[in-house]
């Protein structure tokens, strides 16, 4: 099969190569999925799991990309819940070969059925950004209606989901980003926008939940705004400043079938809009990932037309 591999951490996306690889086999509780569309987060190439297995042994050449939508083509020993021919979408294991390939083997529990009226491109854009937003807001942040949320990077993949899901849950959402991102954030439903390049974060009153996707100084200054009992959730760690009277949670997103289904249902009924910026084929993917220009929103690779 055709797949994109990486072998050299220092080379970043410039080190990606499109090569022939053996098709993966389904292990216990796995399925093999023919990948129709794949999502790739550039920072994956900095994560240890791209380069080593769970015993910290070198696993290169590794195939990056961990989001996908596609069709099940084989079932492993003991696998239940999915069948050959079924449309699925989900989040592949960080420590195994990923989805910038024609086929991927992964645990069935990390996938959910993809309804027939949802395009594969849309399906592949949802798992990381949707699940990260969902878990940060509702599991780690325990968001309640009426609370206020500071949603950083609202024009980005995760931040646009955070903004929409928090609004739907009845929160007051203050979204942030660069000056040029104001309208995008408001279109995703933000009640207010803070331009991190020109406005002063400290002018905001207290907030109940900070959803951080930027880190560093912005994270530290945001932690100081958290009201008693509030929470800082960050997906870019480390937590550099804890809220004085609240909790700080630094987490990595996990696959969850029920949450994936809840997210895709919201896309179907119009409560949630995806934030897809660029769509390209597998042949052009390396060029797209190496383009110097900023890519707004999610980049989705159509592997199978
Ligand atoms: N731990 C986890 O489970 C997990 C899961 C998902 C994502 N992540 C991480 O979360 C981060 C965001 O992911 P994403 O996919 O949402 O990325 P993204 O689509 O690039 O979104 C990030 C947004 O924040 C903006 N931004 C970044 N720094 C800023 C600054 N200093 N001032 C103003 N705006 C700023 C970006 O603008 P520009 O494009 O102009 O910089 C962009 O609009 C990444 O580091 C990713 O690795 C972690």
The run of helices and strands is EEEEEEEHHEHEHEEHEEHEHE
The main β sheet shows up as: 7 strands, mixed
Number of strands: 15
Number of domains: 2
Structural category is alpha/beta
By CATH reckoning, the class of the largest domain would read Alpha Beta
End-to-end Cα distance: 15 Å
GO molecular function, one term: oxidoreductase activity
InterPro entries: ADH-like_C, ADH-like_N, ER, GroES-like_sf, NAD(P)-bd_dom_sf, YIM1/Zinc_Alcohol_DH_Fams
Protein name: NADPH:quinone reductase
Pfam family, one: ADH_zinc_N
Structural description of this entry:
- The model has no long low-confidence stretch (mean pLDDT 96).
- This protein is 22% helix and 28% strand.
- The chain has 2 domains: 2-125 and 274-302, Quinone Oxidoreductase, Chain A, domain 1, CATH 3.90.180; 129-250, NAD(P)-binding Rossmann-like Domain (Rossmann fold), CATH 3.40.50.720.
- α7 links the parallel β14 and β15.
- The protein has helices at residues 120-125, 127-140, 157-168, 182-187, 216-223, 257-268, 282-289; strands at 2-5, 17-20, 30-39, 67-75, 87-91, 103-107, 111-113, 148-151, 172-177, 192-195, 207-212, 226-234, 247-250, 276-281, 298-302.
- With 305 residues, the chain is an alpha/beta fold.
- The radius of gyration is 19 Å and the shape is globular.
- It has 7 helices and 15 strands.
- α2 (127-140) packs across α3 (157-168).
- Residues 41, 43, 128-129, 132, 153, 155-159, 177-178, 181, 196, 213-214, 218, 235-236, 252-253, 294 line the site of NADP nicotinamide-adenine-dinucleotide phosphate.
- GO terms for molecular function: oxidoreductase activity.
């Amino acid at each position: 099969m055709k797949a994109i591999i990486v072998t050299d951490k220092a080379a970043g996306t410039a080190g990606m190569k499109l090569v022939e690889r053996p098709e993966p086999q389904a292990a216990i509780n796995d399925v093999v999925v023919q990948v129709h569309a794949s999502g790739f987060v550039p920072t994956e190439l900095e994560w240890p799991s791209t380069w080593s297995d769970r015993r910290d042994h070198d696993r290169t050449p590794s195939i990056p990309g961990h989001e996908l939508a596609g069709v099940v083509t084989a079932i492993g020993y003991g696998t239940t819940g999915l069948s050959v021919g079924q449309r699925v979408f989900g989040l592949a294991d960080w420590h195994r070969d990923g989805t910038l390939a024609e086929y991927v083997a992964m645990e069935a529990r990390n996938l959910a059925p993809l309804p027939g009226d949802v395009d594969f491109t849309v399906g592949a854009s949802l798992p990381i950004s949707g699940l990260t937003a969902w878990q940060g807001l509702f599991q780690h942040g325990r968001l309640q209606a009426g609370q206020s949320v500071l949603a950083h990077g609202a024009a980005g993949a995760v931040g646009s989901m955070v903004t929409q899901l928090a609004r739907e849950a009845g929160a007051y959402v203050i979204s942030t980003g660069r000056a040029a991102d104001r309208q995008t954030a408001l279109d995703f439903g933000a009640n207010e926008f803070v331009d991190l390049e020109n406005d002063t974060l400290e002018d905001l009153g207290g907030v109940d939940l900070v959803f951080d996707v930027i880190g560093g100084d912005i994270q530290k200054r945001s932690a100081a705004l958290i009201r008693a009992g509030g929470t800082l959730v960050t997906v870019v760690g480390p937590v550099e400043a804890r809220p004085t009277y609240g909790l700080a949670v630094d987490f990595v997103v996990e696959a969850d079938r029920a949450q994936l289904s809840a997210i895709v249902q919201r896309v179907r009924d119009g409560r949630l809009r995806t934030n897809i910026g660029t769509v390209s084929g597998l042949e052009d993917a390396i060029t797209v990932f190496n383009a110097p220009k900023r890519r707004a929103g999610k980049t989705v690779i159509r592997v199978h037309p």
